[in-house]
Amino acid sequence: MNKKEPFVITLSREVGSGGHTVGSILARKLNVRYCDKLLLETLQKQFNLTASQIEKLKGEKKSWLADFIKTVSPIPSAKALGLERKYAQEFILDVTTDDIFKAEVEILNGFAEMGSCVIAGRSGFFVFKDHPNTLNVFITASKAHRMERIMRKQGLPEESAEVLIKEIDQERDNYTRRYAGVSRFDARNYDIVLNADGHTEEELADIILSYIG
Q1: I need a labelling partner for 2 at 20 to 30 A (CA). Which of 46, 143, 201, 213 fits?
Q2: How far is Cα 91 from Cα 129, in angstroms, rounded to an integer?
Q3: Torsion sign, CA atoms 190, 180, 132, 122
């Protein structure tokens, strides 16, 4: 990846690994926009953006998406429309229709067209597979690390945290298999895979920056 040219960093992660925070820190250090699931959902729900609506708006005003994103996502930002992210929101998995996926792809491509950015989740490694300047990252962690983080952040007992991890791992992999045709756990999808065990989110972000050079 060449930092001197417009780039896209996609960051996939296991639930409880701290990957979302890593992405936010990375975007801040690079001074680029950060696009996460909460932002996408807020855009869609607040403005009723389906794939067909996006196509209609694009036909009416070529720059609508760039103007729209600038309004809700200044550089750098991990918030959307003034909504504070609660840790629990990272684990809410809504049923995603094909139309919503297409709308998300349009929005993600809109971010990339505006300039360099960090994209969290949403099968970004697949969405940007033909982008000329990308870095695909996966953040993993041991079950013990993930359990401890989820129990601490959400105040869940051990049994509930274990169930949460199992369910979300399966849901996210189903999503990726449906739209990308591969497992999200396949290391061949990524340029770099990092284990979060023994590292802070800040350290992980710095490792990625060092890899970029």
Answers
A1: 201
A2: 26
A3: negative
Candidates 114, 119, 115, 148; CA nearest to 136 is 119
Residue 137's pLDDT is 97
Provide DSSP, 54-112.
HHHHHHH-TTHHHHHHHHH-PSS-S-BTTBPPPGGGGG------HHHHHHHHHHHHHHH
Angle at which helices 37-47 and 64-72 pack, to 10 degrees?
A: 110
Please report the pLDDT score of residue 210 as a whole number.
95
What is the C-alpha separation between 174 and 160, in angstroms, rounded?
21
Give the separation between CA 147 and CA 160, rounded to whole angstroms: 9
DSSP string, 168-182: HHHHHHHHHHHHHSS
What pLDDT is attached to residue 73? Answer: 55
Domain boundaries, the chain: 8-212
Give the per-residue pLDDT at 98: 65
Q: Which residues of the chain have pLDDT under 70?
A: 38-100
Residue with tokens 């360099």: 116
Kindly report the pTM of this predicted structure: 0.75
CATH of domain 8-212: 3.40.50.300
